[in-house]
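Q: Got a minute? One more chain.
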Amino acid sequence: MDRRLIDYKPEMEFGASPAAPGKADEALRDEYDEMSFAAQLLEAQTPAALDAVLHDLVARGGLGGPVARPVADLLRRAAHQVFPLNATRAPADLKRKAAAIFGLEVEGLSPEDKEFEVARRFVRLAGDTVDQAQARTGQPPRRAVELALLHAARRHAPGLLRRQRQAARLGPWN
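A: Always. Here it is, folded:
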């Protein structure tokens, strides 16, 4: 047998050392966390399960203090627009929501892949909201959270802002 095949170490191909994790390892961890939270969101079938996932997501972002609860509350109201609990998710509805809320084109994906991609986009929105809320610690908690979600939604879910404006007559984030 050729000795080169036995000695081959694929991790050395990219110059990364297993003993010294770098930015590539951090990016993989972030992507793994994103996929993990997306799967948990899709598995949540009750309001309590959804709350648990959102609180874990907020805690994973390192957000605490008086801002953590309002962030989780606001994300829960946004999540109800994306993930209706105790309802069947029709593929056409997912396609419409993906395009309307996230500006995402999911043509050609299976219904499961559409659902998962929408969930991943929501996790990105939530993570950016947590990051933005942390950056606004000097402001009143409720205002900091609203501005954080506004900033994150502009970047990740512009359709959520349109829906919020339409629902403004009924109250915030209905």
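A: The two ends are 67 Å apart (CA to CA).
Q: Perfect, thanks.
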